[in-house]
Amino acid sequence: MFEGITSSLTGALSFLGLGGKLTEANIREGLKNVRQALLEADVHYDVAQKFVDRITEEAVGQKVLESTKPQEMVYGIVYQELINLLGPVDHELKLRRDGLSIIMLCGLQGSGKTTTCGKLAKKLKAEGKKPMLVAADLQRPAAIEQLKTIGAQLDVPVYTEPPTSNPVTVCQNGVKHAKQLNCNVVILDTAGRLHIDSQLMDELRNIDRKVEPQQILFVCDAMTGQDAVNSAKAFNEALELDGIVMTKLDGDARGGAALSVKDVTGVPIKFMGIGEQLDKLELFHPERMAQRILGGGDLATLGELMAQKLDQDAMKKAQDDMLRGKFTLNSFLDAMKQMKKLGSIKSLLSYIPGMSGMLGQLPDMSGADQDMKRVEGIISAMTADERQNPEKIDLSRRRRIARGSGVDAAEVNKLLKDFGGMAKMMQGMAGLNPMDQMRQMQSMAQMGMMNPNADMSAGQKIRSKPKPMDLEKKKKLKKEAEKQRKKNRKR
């Protein structure tokens, strides 16, 4: 997420790290590059210009130029202006304490509106609400069936009528049905178009007038860039939006829409979608996003994800096993399954400080998740005894495991070879906090230790010897693990 703008913006701000005295001239020159970086990230022209003007006005003041740490002050000004650009945000949905609350979702076709209805229903259900979905998108043939499927997955009721019905009547009848079922939140999935037209807006205005929803949320596809901003502006003028749900942020490297939409419309981004799964809906925090954009990662959100999704008992057991020096292939398989709950390797690394702008430079990130599946398949093809005692796996067993997991025997060899060093590293991580463990896992991923095919190129066999640079990294990491084990013993 945002790796493109992170790389461009941090590059444009590189003049802050050159040392020496800042002058008004070099600040202005550097901020020209900042403006260019924003425009290349598809930020709205007026937004980029005003953003740089505000920074310039503060950064060239005497207070900054004559300070002992002017570079830090300018960086702080940029960070604060990013927060101002993205916020403030009120995450409250203003639901009624008693009675029925209605949330209306609108947006263009293909923006992820129906899926977002399901994500919102899942979130509300987890908070103790009793939601119901109403299929009022009668334009897209598959929308009703898609919403029914989502409702079945969540065990949430879905109100539907034939596609020939009137959308306004469907919404009204859906509200009545929700009252009969004692539901306390209704989520309306309204129709979209491939473009904005008067018929669409009239239909939405009629629903708004007849049903009177407490919240109207616009679902905005981040990958459409400037078009997302323009459509958000048009919908807000017609309906007076209460908030925006920015979808497909995990697939948008530029970030221009997210940086522009709040400033252009005045409507806050309340939530962001970062994946297709129904649990991939996060609160939008301007200060955290600003930190990520400037390459500072987002450890706060990562910590929340780890607390919500990881099995705490399993983590405690893994810690105990590592402290006792019993990190086995079973332990590693469990660790991988835990990591998968947090999302893709790429999304996890984006939370780590300093990694956001580097993700595009890592050659194997696109296939890292597939590689993890291959590793999981190899370990799953082993017997329980082999996972517990990998030293027993001889040549014939390796061939059997390779056949069972559908890989070449060389991949099994490489995994077992790498596992020796990995086990020592994991034991050294036993005394670390979860965030430091994530950094160590990041190092392992970059070295290819989670990728059984890391040294292969198309049509070539695995090299028998690792690259010299890999050996140096492994030696360094082994030394770090040994130091950590000594610290653990002293404790």
In short:
The chain has 22 helices and eight strands.
Write structural notes for this entry.
- The protein folds into 3 domains: 3-86, Four Helix Bundle (Hemerythrin (Met), subunit A), CATH 1.20.120; 101-295, Rossmann fold, CATH 3.40.50; 303-490, Signal recognition particle, SRP54 subunit, M-domain (434 Repressor (Amino-terminal Domain)), CATH 1.10.260.
- It is 56% helix and 8% strand.
- It has helices at residues 3-12, 24-40, 45-59, 62-65, 70-86, 113-126, 143-154, 167-180, 198-211, 226-239, 256-265, 286-293, 299-309, 312-323, 329-342, 345-349, 368-380, 384-388, 395-405, 409-428, 434-447, 468-490; strands at residues 101-106, 131-136, 158-159, 185-190, 215-221, 243-247, 269-273, 281-283.
- Strand 7 and strand 8 form a beta hairpin.
- The two termini are 40 Å apart.
- The model is unreliable at 449-470 (pLDDT under 50).
Order of strands across the biggest sheet? Answer: 3-2-4-1-5-6-7-8
H/E series: HHHHHEHEHEHEHEHEHEEHHHHHHHHHHH
The tally of beta strands, per DSSP, is 8
CATH architecture of the largest domain: 3-Layer(aba) Sandwich
* Tally of separate helices: 22
Which regions are unreliable across 5 or more consecutive residues at pLDDT < 50? 449-470
